[in-house]
């Protein structure tokens, strides 16, 4: 007898723009059926048109538009009415708005936001976190917050909203020790320790022909550099010039390591300007400033998460400010130097004993600090590769725990 398909709604990420978010979506779509059998997925996304062009082949995925304005002005009011109706034991057949209906027809909602309810990210983002996760809760559908960084919760509004949402979630998957410590301050009983979903992502086996031509134009090994528009905003709040700083870093890497440098955006939106979800313009600016050096290659393309992982795996060392680029470095046992902004980086690096390979964005003030760490990684590459590989089995086991948790919630 053929098993009927489970229905799963994914929120908090998209296939377009941020390829870290795409990696999480692709991983859930690829791996969850191994645990629960056939699955029909709803991808509730802020980029419905672009995402329809990027659906994983052979996957049963329906794209449902859920832009922030629609979430706040249409879906949440409907969900609030549905919440009242549920309390009065009234039927919900009248709910017809696309996102709310998709969730109501689902067995579980999987929230794959990379980071949520974290102090210092601003009121609009913490409110958005609340509405996004709260939609399924209001509709009465079990919700799992899959692997993500959360906290700290010292801000008054953030603490208040987190305490209204997180205890009501079926399970919160803490992505590292720092996140677990933050969650413990809330006294939650629904927390499980995991590692990032994207450790379960498959690497692409090849690259588009034009990208392959670009890489073949350089001879010898290369350092992959993946800047971030998010870190650019943080760095420039204190008066720095991020593009100049990364340009100095690239030139120092070329001079001190004598390796080529490949600059690649890990978030990309075709035809859009710079933004939190688009590193393309930043990468283009840095590559242009280094255009007099044939050993610097700037890749300007909208690649999949698996293709980006393949580029990372071919480099000698990765220098990145994007979290899921770091995951690709570690997942492919590529020595990785991180220039980040949150506890979410070091809590993953610590799983491999590599905390000292993580830096705050202010390290760009003196690029020699980062360059020395890259030189160290090159000099000790073999031992670092062995060290990363020895840590991977346990990390991948914890990554798989995300799917076991979701399967258990579906089975209840």
From TrEMBL:
<dbReference type="Pfam" id="PF04230">
    <property type="entry name" value="PS_pyruv_trans"/>
</dbReference>
<protein>
    <submittedName>
        <fullName>Unannotated protein</fullName>
    </submittedName>
</protein>
<feature type="domain" description="Polysaccharide pyruvyl transferase">
    <location>
        <begin position="18"/>
        <end position="343"/>
    </location>
</feature>
<dbReference type="InterPro" id="IPR007345">
    <property type="entry name" value="Polysacch_pyruvyl_Trfase"/>
</dbReference>
């Amino acid at each position: 007898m053929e098993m009927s398909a489970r229905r799963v709604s994914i929120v908090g990420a998209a296939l377009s723009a941020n390829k870290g978010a795409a990696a999480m979506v692709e991983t859930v779509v690829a791996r969850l059926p191994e645990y629960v059998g056939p699955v029909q997925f709803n991808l509730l996304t802020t980029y419905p048109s672009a995402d329809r062009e990027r659906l994983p082949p052979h996957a049963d995925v329906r794209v449902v538009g859920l832009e922030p304005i629609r979430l706040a002005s249409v879906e949440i009011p409907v969900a609030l009415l549905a919440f009242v109706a549920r309390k009065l034991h009234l039927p919900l057949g009248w709910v017809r708005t696309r996102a709310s209906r998709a969730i109501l027809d689902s067995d579980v909602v999987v929230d794959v936001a990379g980071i949520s309810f974290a102090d210092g990210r601003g009121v609009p983002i913490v409110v958005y976190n609340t509405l996004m996760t709260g939609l399924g809760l209001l509709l009465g559908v079990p919700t799992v917050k899959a692997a993500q960084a959360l906290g700290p919760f010292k801000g008054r509004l953030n603490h208040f909203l987190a305490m209204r949402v997180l205890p009501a979630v079926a399970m919160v998957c803490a992505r590292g020790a720092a996140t677990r410590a933050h969650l413990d301050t809330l006294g939650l009983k629904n927390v499980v320790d995991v590692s990032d979903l994207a450790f379960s992502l498959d690497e692409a086996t090849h690259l588009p022909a034009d990208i392959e031509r670009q890489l073949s134009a350089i001879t010898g090994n290369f350092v992959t550099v993946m800047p971030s528009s998010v870190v650019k905003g943080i760095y420039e709040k204190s008066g720095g010039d991020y593009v100049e700083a990364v340009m100095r870093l690239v030139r120092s890497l070329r001079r001190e390591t004598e390796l080529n440098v490949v600059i690649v955006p890990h978030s990309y939106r075709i035809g859009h300007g710079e933004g939190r979800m688009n590193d393309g313009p930043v990468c283009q600016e840095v590559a242009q400033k280094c255009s007099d050096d044939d050993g610097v290659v700037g890749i300007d393309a909208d690649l999949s998460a698996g293709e980006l992982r393949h580029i990372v795996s071919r480099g000698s060392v990765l220098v990145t400010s994007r979290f899921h680029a770091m995951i690709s470095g570690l997942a492919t046992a590529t020595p990785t130097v991180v220039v980040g902004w949150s506890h979410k980086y070091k809590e993953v690096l610590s799983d491999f004993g590599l905390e000292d390979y993580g830096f705050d964005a202010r390290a760009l003030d003196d690029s020699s600090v980062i360059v020395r760490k890259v030189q160290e990684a090159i000099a000790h590459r073999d031992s670092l590769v062995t060290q990363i590989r020895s840590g991977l089995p346990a990390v991948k086991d914890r990554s798989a725990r995300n799917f076991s948790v979701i399967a258990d919630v579906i089975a209840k």
